[in-house]
Specification:
The complex is a heterodimer of chains A (415) and B (153). Chain A has 415 residues and is of the alpha/beta class. Helices cover 39% and strands 16% of the residues of chain A. A 7-stranded mixed beta sheet of chain A has the order 4-10-9-8-7-5-6, with helices on both faces. A 4-stranded antiparallel beta sheet of chain A has the order 13-14-17-16, with helices on one face. In chain A, helix 3 crosses helix 10 (289-305), helix 11 packs parallel to helix 14 (397-413) and helix 12 (353-361) crosses helix 14 (397-413). Chain B has one domain: Alpha-Beta Complex (Sufe protein. Chain: A). Chain B contains 5 helices and 4 strands; from the N terminus they run ααβββαααβ. In chain B, strands 3-2-1-4 form a 4-stranded mixed beta sheet, covered by helices on one side. In chain B, helix 2 (10-17) packs across helix 3, helix 3 (67-80) packs across helix 5 and helix 4 (85-99) packs antiparallel against helix 5. The longest helix of chain B is centred in the middle third of the chain and has 15 residues, at 85-99. The chains are: A alpha/beta (415), B alpha+beta (153). The structure holds pyridoxal-5'-phosphate. Pyridoxal-5'-phosphate (PLP) binds at residues 102-104, 132, 134-135, 180, 184, 209, 211-212, 232, 373 of chain A.
Chain lengths: 415, 153
C-alpha cells in the first residue's frame, strides 16, 4: 500500500499532501501548474491510481456472477466499498447505497424511479434558482411529461436562497424538493438541514445534490435526515464514471427501476420478471467495478487526511483568496453568501471570462471560464459567464498569489 | 509556444475595445444570428448587397462575446466591404483553414490580407470557435438561413 498522509491533529502539511498527487508536479507552458478547477473535478492521489492499477493487474474479475475464486474476491472487494460509502456518509445500511455513474445519473434515477410513480398532473416539484443543469433538466422533463409544475426558490443578490419564499413554495401539492448543498457556480452553502426540516413538516421528501459538498465537509445523512443524497466520485478525488445515490429504504422499495436487464433481477421468464431488492434493483448491467474500488481508496484517503483538517485549511484559502482578489481593480465577485465553500466566481465588466481563462492558462493557472452548467444563475446575475477559481486542500497560498499576479497581467493586457 | 501575444495581438485588442461597424443595419438585405452556446457568445451580422453587381455594399455586426470573437467580427466587416459574394465565401473558407492549421498564411497563397493576424488561434483549439463565429454567421446570412447558426452543430 501507498503511504497516506498521516493524520495531524490540527494542521495540514500541504507539501506532504501535494506529494500524494503526482499530476501537481507538472509544468504547463513553462510554469508550475496551479490547478484551481476543483469544483469541476479533483485530481487523484497516488493511492487511488495505484489501487485501481493493482486491482486490474491482480484482482480483476466480474462481480456477483462468477462461482470462481477471482470473482468471489472481486465481489467481496466491491461490496466492501458499498459498506465504506455507507459509513462515510453515515447511512444506516449499505443496502441504501446505489452505485450510479455520477450525480447526474443519481438525480435522473430519482426523477424517473420516484418522480414517475409519485408526481402527477398539477403536482409541484421544488428546486432552487442556483441549481446545476443536472438538477434542473431531469425535473423539467418529468414535469413536462406529467403536466406538473416546477417551482423555483429565488436567490438574493449575495447568492443566498430566500428561505421565507421557500417556505411559501411548500404546499400540499409539493411532491419533492431537490436542492444542492453547495452551489458549484457561487460557492453558497445552503442551509439544507433547516430546508429538509421544513419540507418534512409537510411530509415532503428532499433530495440533496451533494456533488459540491462531499469534497469539502463531512456528510451525515441521518443527522440531515435527507431522503436522497447524490454525489460523484470524481469530485472527491476518486475516478470518473462512478457515483452514489443514497436513498432511504422506504423510498428505494417504492421506486421503480430506471434501467432493466442483467444483475437487477431475481428471476426472468418471457412472461414475467421479478426484480431484485434494492440496491441491485437499480444497478442493471455489469457495474464500473474498478471505479468502485478506486472510490473506496479515495474515501480512505479523505479519512486519512481528515475533514477536521481539510475544512479550516480550505476556509483559510477562501478568505485569503477573497481578500486578494478584491484588491484587483475592476474585479467583482459573483456570490457573496455568508456561508461559502472555497469556490470564487468573478467577472470584470469589460474583459470576457474566456480571455481571462486563456491568459491565465499561459501562466499555468487552470481556472474555469463559462456558465458552469448553471445558465439560470448567469442570467440571474446578469453576466454571460464568469471565471471561477475553486480550491482544494492541495492548493497553496502561493498558487493564489500566482492567480492574483496573473489577473493583474490580464488587466494590463486589456488596459 | 503559448506566448499569449500570439493570440492577443495589439490589433485584436484594439478592435475588441473599439469594434468597427458595430451597429444594426436597418436596410440589410441579408441577416443572420450566430451563437456559441458553450461560451454565450452571440453576434448578429447584417449585409447589404449591391443590387446590380452583388458586391457587399455595407456590412455591420452587433452582439457580445470575448475579445477574440468580437475582434474577429470587427476585422471581418472591415475586410469584406466592397468584396463580391464569391470572394467573401472564399475568405471564409481560407479563414477557417487558417485557424484550424490547414493553411499557413506565411507560406501559402491566400486572400486574407491582415486577417492573417488570427493565425495564432490555431495554437488554441478551444478558441477556434470564438474566432470563426462571425464567419459562420456571415455564411448563414449569405445563405439566407432562418435559424440561428450555432458553433455546436
Ligand atoms: C452541483 C452539481 N450538481 C451536479 C453535478 C453533475 O455531476 P456529474 O457531472 O459528476 O454527474 C455537478 C458537477 O458538475 C455539480 O457541481
Amino acid at each position: 500500500m501507498v503511504t497516506l498522509m498521516e493524520k495531524t491533529a490540527t494542521h495540514l502539511d500541504v507539501e506532504r499532501i501535494r506529494a500524494d498527487f503526482p499530476i501537481l508536479k507538472q509544468k504547463i507552458h513553462g510554469h508550475p501548474l496551479a490547478y484551481l478547477d476543483n469544483a469541476a473535478t479533483t485530481q487523484k492521489p497516488l493511492s487511488v491510481i495505484e489501487r485501481m492499477t493493482d486491482f486490474y493487474m491482480n484482482e480483476y474479475a466480474t462481480v456477483r456472477r462468477g462461482v470462481y475464486e477471482m470473482s468471489a474476491r472481486a465481489t467481496i472487494a466491491y461490496d466492501e466499498v458499498r459498506e465504506k460509502v455507507a459509513r462515510f456518509i453515515n447511512a444506516p445500511s449499505s443496502s441504501e447505497i446505489v452505485f450510479v455513474r455520477g450525480t447526474t445519473e443519481a438525480i435522473n434515477l430519482v426523477a424517473s424511479g420516484y418522480g414517475r410513480p409519485f408526481v402527477q398532473a398539477g403536482d409541484e416539484v421544488v428546486i432552487s434558482a442556483i441549481e446545476h443543469h443536472a438538477n434542473i433538466v431531469p425535473w423539467q422533463q418529468l414535469c413536462q411529461e406529467k403536466g406538473a409544475v416546477l417551482k423555483v426558490i429565488p436567490v438574493n443578490d449575495d447568492g443566498e436562497l430566500d428561505i421565507e419564499a421557500y417556505q411559501a413554495l411548500l404546499t400540499d401539492k409539493t411532491r419533492i424538493v431537490s436542492v444542492n448543498h453547495i452551489s458549484n457556480s457561487l460557492g453558497t452553502i445552503n442551509p439544507i438541514k433547516a430546508m429538509i426540516d421544513m419540507a418534512h413538516q409537510r411530509g415532503i421528501p428532499v433530495l440533496i445534490d451533494g456533488a459540491q459538498s462531499i469534497q469539502h465537509m463531512p456528510i451525515d445523512v441521518q443527522a440531515l435526515d435527507c431522503d436522497f443524497f447524490a454525489f460523484s466520485s470524481h469530485k472527491i478525488y476518486g475516478p470518473t464514471g462512478i457515483g452514489v445515490l443514497y436513498a432511504k429504504r422506504q423510498h428505494l422499495n417504492a421506486m421503480v427501476p430506471y434501467q432493466t436487464g442483467g444483475d437487477m433481477i431475481e428471476s426472468v421468464t418471457f412472461e414475467k420478471t421479478t426484480f431484485a431488492k434494492a440496491p441491485n434493483k437499480f444497478e442493471a448491467g455489469t457495474p464500473a467495478i474498478a471505479e468502485v474500488i478506486g472510490l473506496g481508496a479515495a474515501l480512505d484517503y479523505i479519512n486519512a487526511v481528515g475533514y477536521e483538517n481539510i475544512q479550516p485549511y480550505e476556509h483559510h484559502l477562501l478568505t485569503y483568496a477573497t481578500q486578494a482578489l478584491l484588491q484587483i481593480e475592476g474585479l467583482r465577485i459573483i456570490g457573496n453568501a455568508r456561508e461559502k465553500a472555497s469556490v470564487i466566481s468573478f467577472v470584470f465588466d469589460d474583459i470576457h471570462p474566456h480571455d481571462v481563462g486563456t491568459l491565465l492558462d499561459s501562466r499555468g493557472i487552470a481556472v474555469r471560464a463559462g456558465h458552469h452548467c448553471t445558465q439560470p444563475v448567469m442570467e440571474r446575475f446578469h453576466v454571460p459567464a464568469t471565471t471561477r477559481a475553486s480550491f482544494s486542500f492541495y492548493n497553496t497560498q502561493q498558487e493564489i498569489d500566482a492567480l492574483v499576479d496573473g489577473l493583474r497581467m490580464v488587466t494590463q493586457v486589456f488596459r | 509556444m503559448a506566448d499569449q501575444n500570439e493570440l492577443y495581438q495589439q490589433v485584436i485588442l484594439e478592435h475588441n475595445k473599439k469594434p468597427r461597424n458595430f451597429s444594426v443595419l436597418e436596410e440589410a438585405s441579408h441577416y443572420a444570428l450566430g451563437k456559441n452556446p458553450l461560451c454565450g457568445d452571440q453576434f448578429a451580422v447584417y449585409l447589404k448587397l449591391n443590387e446590380d453587381n452583388g458586391t457587399i455594399e455595407e456590412i455591420r455586426f452587433q452582439g457580445s462575446g470575448c475579445a477574440i470573437s468580437k475582434a474577429s467580427a470587427s476585422l471581418m466587416t472591415v475586410n469584406l466591404k466592397g468584396k463580391s459574394e464569391e470572394e467573401a465565401r472564399l475568405m471564409k473558407d481560407e479563414f477557417q483553414k487558417m485557424v484550424t492549421g490547414q493553411l499557413d498564411p506565411d507560406t501559402e497563397p491566400h486572400h486574407l490580407g491582415r486577417l492573417s493576424i488570427f493565425q495564432g488561434v490555431k495554437q488554441y483549439p478551444v478558441r477556434v470557435k470564438c474566432a470563426s463565429l462571425a464567419w459562420h454567421t456571415l455564411e448563414a446570412a449569405l445563405n439566407k438561413e432562418q435559424e440561428a447558426v450555432s458553433t455546436e452543430s
